[in-house]
Design brief:
The chain has three domains: 1-133, Serine Threonine Protein Phosphatase 5, Tetratricopeptide repeat (Alpha Horseshoe); 154-251, Alpha Horseshoe (Serine Threonine Protein Phosphatase 5, Tetratricopeptide repeat), CATH 1.25.40; 253-375, Serine Threonine Protein Phosphatase 5, Tetratricopeptide repeat (Alpha Horseshoe), CATH 1.25.40. The chain has 375 residues and is mostly helical. α6 (96-112) packs parallel to α8 (135-151) and α14 packs antiparallel against α15 (270-282). The protein is elongated, with a radius of gyration of 31 Å. It has 20 helices and no strands.
């Protein structure tokens, strides 16, 4: 139906009810075709004629959704809020599906503007009418609630709603990849690393070319590292390096070589750890803090290889960049031990005291005390 034909039919309508019904039908057809601006105009015309509260709430909601789809967030939220307030469930012609759909869009708007608590509030109302929604709306609703709970650091609830979203989807739906990623993220935040690995692995099984696959492999590797499974962590970091080398994108990878160096060190592969550390330095770490962390592995590996003089020489250069950095306990204890091996008691005592101050609960302090003859 073209607009000219619509106007002809509208002029021949015998009642307001017929006019409203015709406008609603025409607007719905325009909406389905993605012609939201024109649909908005028709829904607005129907709203100006309609007097019944729930019907007015329906058209007000449709106007808000049209504004939403053309990116007019302020206008969309204003109409959606008015629609939500106008709906009266106890009166005839209440439309539970539309009432839920209005709150679904409100939740999306609030989330987009960083208001997770308000988004969750709106979506919880929509959830009451989830059975009246289409499947696509249902899973997106539950997935959105999961994101809101995650943003509010309620990771158990986030997992629960991701599971609800997964139950709605079929086994090969592409949306599952994002839900599995969300599950992995929340299990990781709960420090349930085995569960996190399981869901991150499902992402890659379902979609080997997942858009954030580098991130997924990195999280898998970090989970293995938290589980002290350094062999599998190393394999995962190496996989990331391969992907980045294949991609050919120019980026600073010193952080990744640092991860590899740490894994080799933990596996007592000191020569390999040293070589990877030198490669990390060659790739110019991003700042002094990162450079200090990279250089610290020269000291730790030189000590383990019995190259004590080189260990302290590189160690003093490291401390010229930063005094504290990630995994610095490995560094400081080996600085103390290297000076002890070199017979430099003054420097040994200095670093023994630093270790005692920085890492009071570390069992290596007792060993250092024995070397000084302390009880």
């Amino acid at each position: 139906m073209k607009k000219k034909e619509l106007n002809t039919k509208l002029s021949s309508c015998g009642s307001k009810a017929e006019r409203v019904s015709l406008l609603d039908e025409y607007a719905g057809d325009l909406f389905e075709k993605g012609r939201f601006r024109e649909a908005l105009e028709c829904y607005g015309q129907a709203l100006s004629v309609e007097k019944q509260p729930n019907a007015r709430a329906y058209f007000m909601g449709q106007v808000g959704i049209c504004h939403y789809n053309v990116g007019e967030d302020k206008e969309a939220l204003a109409f959606l809020l008015r629609s939500a307030r106008l709906f009266q469930p106890e009166l005839p012609e209440f439309m539970p599906d539309m009432y839920g759909f209005v709150h679904f869009h409100m939740g999306s708007l609030y989330e987009y503007h960083g208001r997770a608590a308000k988004a969750l509030e709106a979506r919880r109302i929509c959830e009451q009418y989830a059975g009246d929604q289409e499947k696509d709306t249902q899973w997106m609703l539950f997935a959105g609630m999961s994101r809101n709970y995650e943003a509010l650091h309620k990771h158990d609830d986030a997992i629960r709603y991701s599971q609800k979203a997964i139950q709605v989807l079929s086994d090969n739906d592409p949306g599952l990849s994002y839900l599995y990623e969300s599950m992995g993220n929340n299990y990781m935040s709960l420090r349930q690393y085995r569960e996190a690995i399981k869901y991150f692995s499902k992402v890659m099984e379902l979609d080997p070319r997942f858009e954030r696959r580098d991130d997924i492999y990195l999280k898998i590797a970090d989970c293995y590292q938290q589980l002290t499974n350094d062999k599998l962590a190393l394999e995962s970091y190496q996989k990331i390096l391969e992907l980045k080398q294949i991609g050919g994108k120019r980026e600073n990878l010193s952080w990744l070589y640092l991860k590899l160096a740490y894994c080799h060190f933990r596996l007592e592969q000191y020569e390999k750890s040293l070589l990877v550390t030198l490669e990390a330095l060659r790739r110019r770490p991003r700042n002094k803090q990162e450079k200090a962390e990279v250089r610290s592995y020269l000291t730790t590996n030189y000590y383990e290889l019995g190259r004590f003089l080189e260990a302290v020489q590189e160690g003093e250069k490291t401390l010229g960049l930063a005094r504290r950095f990630t995994n610095d306990n490995l560094f400081y204890f080996r600085m103390a031990l290297s000076y002890h091996k070199l017979g430099n008691n003054k420097s040994f005592v200095k670093y023994r005291n630093i270790c005692s101050r920085y890492f009071p609960g570390d069992g290596w302090n007792k060993y250092l005390d024995k070397l000084t003859g302390l009880p």
